[in-house]
Structures are given as C-alpha cells and as structure tokens.
Amino acid sequence: MDNCHKLISRRNELTSNRIAFLSCVPQPSYAFVHLQIESAAEEPRVLCIVQDTTNAKTVNERLTLNLPASTTVNKLYEDVAHKAGYVNGTFCLAWANTGDMAPLDQASEMSLVLSGFEAGKRNFMQLTDKEGEQPQIASVNSSGLDDSSQDRFIGPLPRDGTVGCSSDYSSPSYSYSSILNKSDTGYVGLVNQAMTCYLNSLLQTLFMTPEFRNALYNWEFEESEEDPVTSIPYQLQRLFVLLQTSKKRAIETTDVTRSFGWDSSEAWQQHDVQELCRVMFDALEQKWKQTEQADLINQLYQGKLKDYVRCLECGYESWRIDTYLDIPLVIRPFGASQAFGSVEEALQAFIQPETLDGPNQYFCERCKKKCDARKGLRFLHFPYLLTLQLKRFDFDYTTMHRIKLNDRMTFPEELDMSPFIDVEDEKSPQTESCTDSGAENEGSCHSDQMSNDFSTDDAVDEGICLDNTSTAERALKPKSSLTFELFSVMVHSGSAAGGHYYACIKSFSDSQWYSFNDQHVSKITQDDIRKTYGGSSGSRGYYSSAFARCVKPPKFLDVEDFPEHIKRLMQREKESEEQEKRQREIERNTCKIKLFCMHPIKMMMVENKLEVHKDKTLREATEMAYKLMDLDGVVPLDCCRLVKYDEFHEYLERSYEGEEDMPMGLLLGGVKSSYMFDLLLEIRRPDQVFQPYKPGEVMVKVHVVDLKSESIAAPVSVRAYLNQTITEFKQLIAQATGLCAETMRVILERCYNDLRLLYVPNKTLKAEGFFRSNKVFVESSDSADHQAVFTDSVLWKLLDRHGNTIRLFVSLPEQSPGSLANRTSCPKASADSEDSFDGAKGSRKSVEAILEESTEKLKNLSLQQQQQQHQQQSSSTSDSQKSSEHSDFELIESPAQEPDAASQPSQTENCTRATSDTENQFPSEDHSSDTLCNADSGPLPLANGLDSHSITSSRRSKAHEGKKETWDTAEEDSGTDSEYDENGKSKADAQYLYFKTEPYSHEDGSGEGQKCLLVHLDKRITLAAFKQNLEPFVGVPSTQFKVFRVYANNQEFESVRLNETLSSFSDDNKITIRLGRALKKGEYRVKVYQLLVNDPEPCKFLLDTVFAKGMTVRQSKEELLPQLKDQCKLDLSTDRFRLRKKTWKNPGTVFLDYHVYEEDINISSNWEVFLEVLEEPERMKSMSQLAVLTRRWCPAQMKLEAFREVVLESSSVEELKEKLSELSGIPLENLEFAKGRGTFPCDISLLEIHQDLDWNPKVSTLNVWPLYICDDGAVIFYSFVLLQCWYCM
C-alpha cells in the first residue's frame, strides 16, 4: 500500500472507542506594565499596536506605542525591544492582518510616515521570529515585565483565530515552568498545518525513541525504485534529520503528509492519534518488506495475548492468540459511577475473566453440552515499548451524546507488569500447533498444555538493545525484569467536541522531561507530568502513555556518526535551508504591486504583478514592467512610463517626472504586503508627449456625442481641478476636442445610474459632484434640440439608450425548422428562412436583408393564424404600426423594414434615426439592423415600472471591456409567470426599446456551422418582446421556441417569465435558442426518468414533457403514453406504470391517479419525476399505505437477492416482519431486518453488512429513530438468523 489514507487493513488489535478532536484551550492572559512615552515634539503622532506572536504567553497581549510621526523605523525597533523585554535585533516587525508577512527593514532610517504608517490612526503590527529563532529575552529588570509575567505557560497553547478552536473552553491555571528558547532546549518544534497537533505529537514521540530513530537512519532510500515524494520512510527520515540538525524553531510537516497521500483538506480533519499510529506502522511495514527493518515495528511495539474460554466442568479450553500494539484501558466500567484510580487497577480489570452461566452458557465440545465457563484474556508477551491507551471518550446513552471522561487516573514512573503476565504459559515448554497470526487461528487443549512459541521474538535488529533471553528464562527472573519506565505521555486537552493534543516526552540522553506542543518545545518537571492525571474541574487528561523496559537504551546517533547516505541528505537539506533563507531575505526587500497596462494589440486592460527590489530605480522598474507586459517589438521602451494608478476608480493619481533614478522603495513608501494604490504602464504614440499628472487633479473621460449620426465617440481623457467652474471646464474640453464651448452641453454620469446636465456657469466641479474619476458626455451643435427640456431631448434619449444597452451572444438552433412540421404550420417557409440565413452568412448579406426575407416568409403562414394574431393586437399597437411606416423609430413587433428605410428622413417630431455608427459600443457594425422605439415626447415608460429618470448603465469603460463576467450561481426562472393568453400570444405590452442585430462567428473556430447573432438591445425589453424580435431569425413564431440562459459553467436554464425584463442580463451573456413549444401560464417543464430498481444504473432518463397546474396524475400519464411510445419505444397502459417523487436518485412518494398537481403535489420548474413500470396492477390505493423496497441478504451464499416491493397498510414493525415472512418463508422468530443507508440502491459491502447496519432495532413503529421511515421508497434488508449464542465455537 502506497499511502496512509488508503491503508484500511490493520493488524488484529483490541478495539477501543475513538473520536476526532477539533477545539483548543484558551489560556489566561498576562498584563504587561506599559512604559509611558513622553511626547517628542508638537507633531502628528503614530499609534502602533504590536502583537507578540513568538510564544504562548504573550500571543494575546498588545504593546501600545504612541510615537512622533518623524520617528525612524530603527528607533521603533528599539522602543519595541525595550517594551517587550527582548534584545534588539533578535526579532522582526511585520504588518498584521495581511497575507504577506514581509517584515520592516530594521536598519531603515525612513520615518514611520514614509514607511507606510498612518498618523492619527491605529497601525497594527506583529512581532515575529527572526530566521526561525525566538527573540532573546533581555534581563528582567529592563524588560518592562512584572515578575508574574515571567512564569510562561506550558501545555495546550491558545490558537487564536484557528478554525476548529472552541471559544467556550477554558483552561485551568497551571504553574508550569518557564518556556525556554530553542537554543536552551536544543529541540525543534513542528508547525501545525491546521489540525495536525495529533500528528506532531506522534512524530515527536517517534523521534525521541532512539531505537526507532537509529533504525530509520540505517535504512537507505533507493530513488531509482520509488518516487521520494510518496515514500513515507524517506519523508520521515528527512523530517528526523531536520529535527536533529535544523536551526529553525519549527519545521513544516507538509512533505510527510503529502507522502501519506493527503490533500490540503485532510490537514483540517483531526483523527485519533492511536489510529494514525497503526496506519503509519502498517505503511512502514509494507515499505520495509525484504529489508533489514522488516520486523522493526513488531520488535519494538508488538505484544501477544491469549483470548480463551475454559469449561468449568471438564477443564477443556478453547483459545486463540492475538497481537496488539497498544492496550486499551477502560477508565469507568460500563454502568459504574466510580472510575478506576490508577493504571494498575485498570490493567487488573482488563485481564479479569468473566463467568458465562445461565442463558450465556458455553457449548463445550468435550462435554457435548452447554456448561458454565470462564472467558478472559491473558498476557503472554509484552513489547519492548509498551503503549497504554485510556478510553477517555465514551457515549452517554441518557443524553445520546459523546462525552469525555475527565476522571483522575494515576500512572507510576515505573510500571511493574509481572502481576499481569501468564506465568504458567511462560513456563510451559510444550508448543502446540496454534500460531499467533490473529483471530482466525484458533486452537484447543487442556489447561496443562498451553502453547508457547515466543522463544525467538526478542531478537536484536538494527542496534536495538533488547532483552534477548528466552521467555522461559525471563519467567524465572525476578519481577523487575518486566518493569517498564515511563518516557512519553500523550495529553488531550478539551472535550469530546474538540480539543488539542500535545506530548510530554522524557529524553533518554539527560532524563529531562520536555513538552512538545507543536512549534513550542519547553522543559517541564515531574510536577507538570502529575498534573496530566485528570480530575478536579479541568478537562485536561493524558490520553495515552508509553513505557520502555528498564534496560539501558541505546544512544542517539550523533551527526558525525551518521551513515553516509544520511550525511548526504543532511548536506542537501542544509543547502536547501540556506537557499530558503536567502530567498526570504530577497522577499523581505521585494516590493510587490499590481501592474496594469492598456495593451495596444489586445486593446484591453492587462493585469499582472510587478515584483521589484526596493533598491531598483524607477527606470529599471519601467524596463521590467515593459518586459512583463510583453511589449518588446510592439512599442519602443521610451514610449512607456510608470504612473501611480487607482484601478477601482480608474484614476491616474500622479506621474513621476524627474524621479527616474529614485529607488522604488522610496517611491512606493517602503516594502509592504499590500499597497493602497497600483501602477499603470502608460503608453504614448511616438509623436505624442506624456502629460504630467499632479496630485489633486481629477480625471474626466469625455465622450463626444454626435446627434446627426447618433454616435458616441471613444473617450478622451482630460484632467481638471475641483475648484474650476463649469465655464472653465467647458473651455478645457473645447481645447481637447475642438468643439465650440458656447453651444456645448455637458452631461455628467454619476455612479452609472444618473445623468445630470451641467448648466450653471459659475458652479464648481466639486459642487456638481465630481470625484477622482468621472465620465461626461458633451454635445455641441445648433440643432433645435437645445431648446427642449433635457429629459425630453433627443440627446437624453440617446444617452438613455447608451446607458441601458447590453450585448448578447445568441446561438440559433442548428436543426432546420422545416423538418419540424409539428412545431410550425409553414415548414416550407421555415426551410427557406434557413437558406436565407446561410446565404447571408456566406455573402455577408446585411441583417436588414435577412430580416426582410424572413419576414416575407413568415407572411406565408396560414391566413387563419395570421388573422388570430392581428385580432389580439390592441388598437394602440395598430396605430403605432401605422406610424412606423413613416418613422425610423419602429415598434418592436414589426422589426422588418426596407433596406433603404434607414435613409428616409424622420417625419415624426422628437424622433431620430438609429444607426450602426456607435463607435464605442458596437465595433464592425457595417451590416446591421436597428430598431429604436419612441412612444411620445414624454419619459419612456419602463417595463419594470421605473421612470425614465433612473438609468442603469451596464456598460464598462475600455479598461474593462476585456473582462468577462463570471456567474457563480445559476438562478432558475419559474414557469408560473408565463404570460400567454389562450391562443399562445404574449400579453406583455409592447415597449419602444432599442434592438439591433448582426451576424457573428466564433473567433476560435468553435461552433463552426452554428448560426449565431450578436444582439445589442435595451435591457429593459421584456422577454416576450425579445422573442418576438428573434422570430425572423429563428423562422418560427415565438411560441414555438425556447430561450435558455447559459452560465459560466455551461449550465443552461430556461427563461420563461415573459413579462420580466432582461435587467439581470449583462454584457456578453450567452443565450441559446432551442426549438420546442414554449410554456404557457401554469405549465411546468418536467424531466421523466425511468426507475429500474434491479439494474446496475437504476436511474435512466427518458424524455422531457410538460405538466400543467390542475392536471391530475392520471391525465399526465395519459399524455405521456404516446410520447413514451414514439420517443422511448415503451408501449404501456396507464394501469401498468406509476409516477413517483424523485429526490436526487432516491425514489419517494408514489403519486396516485387522483392527485392534482399544485394541490396535492408540489411542482416547480425543471421538475424531475420517476416513472416505474409495474409487473402487476397498482397496489397503492391510499396515502395511508406505505411502499418499501426489500432485499434479502443470504450470508451462506454471500449475496443479495433482487429488490421486491412490499406495501404496508400501517407503519407497524410487526406488519413489516409479517410481510417479509410471508414473502420469504422465514419464520418470524428467525427474521432480522435493517434499514439501508445512503443513496438508492443503498449499496453496501457484503463483508461489512452486519457491522454497518442497525439490525433488529428495538422499536414498534417505523416512523421513529433509528428507522425514520415516513415515506415510500425506503430500502429494507432482511435475513434468516439462527438463535445461537455468539460464543459457541
């Protein structure tokens, strides 16, 4: 097996309760005595709030310094060192609340303000380690700390802000010894990835085991045979080398977890430490097969015990030998209120036999009858390293919650295991045929003929000094030979809902105890160990403990004694660490800032990140940005410059004339993790000169509007001052655009939703609402439109159209409408329509021509249908159609016009001609059709009920035209609001809104042969009007095609609310048109799936259909019959299939024929339903009945029979068992059943079906826990069971 998380086969050890823990222990806070800092001068002050993150005691404390703004960075370091009690130069200061922890330069002479600090505001900093080393503590008298604060806390550290920490957990106050620096302890900690404290504790315990560490060093990795990334032994070897030789305070464990096969999410899943240990050991054994370390795990950790049953009448004994890696000890026996007081008491209870009598009598093979017997466990062999696990986690059947047992349980420093060994078995010289291969190897013999096969188990391997005497000799030795010395304690602090692991380990080198708490390593005492016994009001207690035999352990390998391959590995890791250190130094001095550039070829704003050393000049940074934006060969370097830029407001803040040789660190205000501004690589033409940008200026994008051509030009950038008047501003625009200032009208667009005419000459730009970046429209002509009220003018209507116009990509159906005779009454015309489109595509024929031809062909529809459509049109609509014959503002229900209609002069007052020359919106519009609709001289009535003074613009500037909007969610349109009358005609009022189309083809060649349109339209248009405008291009009436909105993940949802506008759409959204009848009011589109309960894939899609509100289930079944026959080749009758609820893949409620949709059955758009073919007439007649799916489990054949349905008249368990007995012939007393779990068909491993399911629940009805069967479709497994005691062998 290659990685740990896939290892599910384990050695046959004793089971125990386990749970994953997620929360942490908050610690008491300690107050600092803050020093008063006198004001240095009458100048702005900088408030610095510093959090010390280097140790557990001070992580929740804040140092506050109120310094003059002229204070330098190196002076700040001195003040922080004095106040925190550290030696200056042994720590770093970095900005807090940012993703990039780049420290401040300690040697910098820059003032705080120039370094990015803000005067008059709180500036949050973090005090961190320097190069992995903890800060050196200065003398107590100069540290500014009181005496009590020097008593640093050891144990579960606070994990502020970490996901999974329990905020309601409080820690008792322990007086542990003070934390020592890494240089004092000599040990390296492990970084907690997220919730890997349990893993860190286990790894440190293994590292501190000399036998394991030395054996791991002696193993040599062969890179030619395996990938080092996935090799668990190799990654452990690397980790141990780093733990022994690294200069860092803590190192990462990501490479180790990656070798397990874990992804990043598994670092957030806390597991049981004993479980992880077994899985890791299994992985190591798999990797070490056929090597010298093959039997290392067994020699160190594996013990053996005997599980026996002895007849009390004849002495016959049945037994088997089990192996174990740890001994699980019960703290509180089941049903007892008093816990064991010590490990010795728990061990004695562990081997205490129980008597099988009464109904639990044992069937003796020698006596051939049931007899009283004694069942128990005997230890046969203890490992070299003995692990005891306390079962501190239990289940409270009263509250039905998991609980943690915090009872006090003591353990000795030396544990004598001789009282618990089976001395008779140890002395027995005879060896039977039984083996120790696990639970399946069993034997039987008399009590005086016990097996003994452990004479060679204690061999010496890899320099491990074990007691290699035979078991018989060991039994004759004094009891002290079975004495174990405590060397590791695993502690869990918290509750059953969450907690934190750390380890207390005794070093074999100096007999000193250390606390290994993630990245913190500290010395502790025996008193600290005794505080982990548990009890009192705290929730801290040791979870497991490890003992070693009282023999002289081997020494750890020193660096000079490393094998050659470990020395090479150490050298590689040292070089890697040095390289990482150099890289960190570079990172500390690198400015990282967003860079933008309007690319002259791509014609879109390109974004990148500029990473430049703080000592690089502006000239060098410009060259780096030039190469980064790939402009070499596109524009000369001297035509580019870097300017300060605000991307959010699209504002050029300032330029850097004369500062080309200034270091970037000074220009940007120092090295920061993030900046409040960006940089723009500005490009000019060779004949242009860069315009200087000064702070305090505002930028205005000026769009020139031409009323004659109804076009809006691309923006021209103009810089102005907020104190300028409107008259001065007009003169400035006149100089930039060449327009006449006397006749100029200036319109300010504020916040993309408001247009304001600037007509007060002496009013300043600030008073008019100008900001850093602004957008205005200007028009200068002698037309009569100047005399009209602004909201009634042609200019306002043109800007209104501009602000509400969006661009959509529409994919037309590929299938020819002519082949769908059942969808249109004129297939010939539809086919011709397709031909006309193809012709237009091949010859680039104008869309006006396509529109005209398609409209002519639609006139070939039957006279009866045409008359019905005209009868339903209102008189106002007819009048509008008549007026459109003489006006270029056409009603959207008559989109067709003559090719030369655009050249006709307007004969309606206040109406203008819509053209295709809007340069800034619609590129390549040489062949297009326009339809601009204007009702009267008043404000436009919008379809959403808003007046025309509220204009929402979705248009973005040139800088954003390259960005595509991403849809994270796809909201479905409901089918309940479809607004069709009885004849299928839309009842939505016609709106006079803009609609223009042009042919479109995919640039990348995808969708070749697909008919596509690029549609520019007013987003206030209703869906009904949108569909009517598309009729000429689709070739069928709007009632015969559907509109689907395509989202970013290519999901499609049908839009069916015809009376709603397209306001939720935005630029470049994609639309797909599909042929088919559109929904009417009260109709729902339904997907029908066939339920095949006994097929490998039980859910099979059949067809799409339509159900209507008020329709009965039987009516829907009758409508389905011809569709099933034509599309699915299913010839059925209404009484031989049923419809039922579909929830994901699970079958649910059976719908009865008399049920009515939306009255008895809730239905929604894109609803899904199951169709189930019946082998016999329907048995479900009433809602009080219950239909369950049953499946028989045959253990003898190791198979599951096919599903069979059982219909119950009530929710009685007795009725269910009677039905199952009648169905299968199993007597009631021999029938057991269980509810299936998971998604239908509730697949389950045949090897685990008895363990994973809850068989024969003790309930009388089906609708209570643990069954909860309240609806049709539940899965029931049942089986035949013999009434025989489990212990009969």
UniProtKB/TrEMBL annotation:
<feature type="region of interest" description="Disordered">
    <location>
        <begin position="421"/>
        <end position="452"/>
    </location>
</feature>
<feature type="compositionally biased region" description="Polar residues">
    <location>
        <begin position="430"/>
        <end position="452"/>
    </location>
</feature>
<feature type="compositionally biased region" description="Acidic residues">
    <location>
        <begin position="968"/>
        <end position="981"/>
    </location>
</feature>
<feature type="region of interest" description="Disordered">
    <location>
        <begin position="816"/>
        <end position="846"/>
    </location>
</feature>
<dbReference type="Pfam" id="PF00443">
    <property type="entry name" value="UCH"/>
</dbReference>
<dbReference type="InterPro" id="IPR028889">
    <property type="entry name" value="USP"/>
</dbReference>
<dbReference type="InterPro" id="IPR029071">
    <property type="entry name" value="Ubiquitin-like_domsf"/>
</dbReference>
<protein>
    <recommendedName>
        <fullName>Ubiquitin carboxyl-terminal hydrolase 47</fullName>
    </recommendedName>
</protein>
<dbReference type="GO" id="GO:0005829">
    <property type="term" value="C:cytosol"/>
</dbReference>
<feature type="compositionally biased region" description="Polar residues">
    <location>
        <begin position="903"/>
        <end position="923"/>
    </location>
</feature>
<dbReference type="GO" id="GO:0004843">
    <property type="term" value="F:cysteine-type deubiquitinase activity"/>
</dbReference>
<dbReference type="InterPro" id="IPR018200">
    <property type="entry name" value="USP_CS"/>
</dbReference>
<dbReference type="GO" id="GO:0016579">
    <property type="term" value="P:protein deubiquitination"/>
</dbReference>
<dbReference type="InterPro" id="IPR045578">
    <property type="entry name" value="USP47_C"/>
</dbReference>
<feature type="compositionally biased region" description="Polar residues">
    <location>
        <begin position="816"/>
        <end position="827"/>
    </location>
</feature>
<dbReference type="Pfam" id="PF25985">
    <property type="entry name" value="Ubiquitin_USP47_N"/>
</dbReference>
<dbReference type="InterPro" id="IPR001394">
    <property type="entry name" value="Peptidase_C19_UCH"/>
</dbReference>
<dbReference type="InterPro" id="IPR050164">
    <property type="entry name" value="Peptidase_C19"/>
</dbReference>
<dbReference type="InterPro" id="IPR038765">
    <property type="entry name" value="Papain-like_cys_pep_sf"/>
</dbReference>
<dbReference type="Pfam" id="PF19718">
    <property type="entry name" value="USP47_C"/>
</dbReference>
<dbReference type="InterPro" id="IPR000626">
    <property type="entry name" value="Ubiquitin-like_dom"/>
</dbReference>
<dbReference type="Pfam" id="PF14560">
    <property type="entry name" value="Ubiquitin_2"/>
</dbReference>
<feature type="compositionally biased region" description="Low complexity">
    <location>
        <begin position="862"/>
        <end position="881"/>
    </location>
</feature>
<feature type="domain" description="USP">
    <location>
        <begin position="188"/>
        <end position="546"/>
    </location>
</feature>
<feature type="region of interest" description="Disordered">
    <location>
        <begin position="860"/>
        <end position="984"/>
    </location>
</feature>
<dbReference type="GO" id="GO:0005634">
    <property type="term" value="C:nucleus"/>
</dbReference>
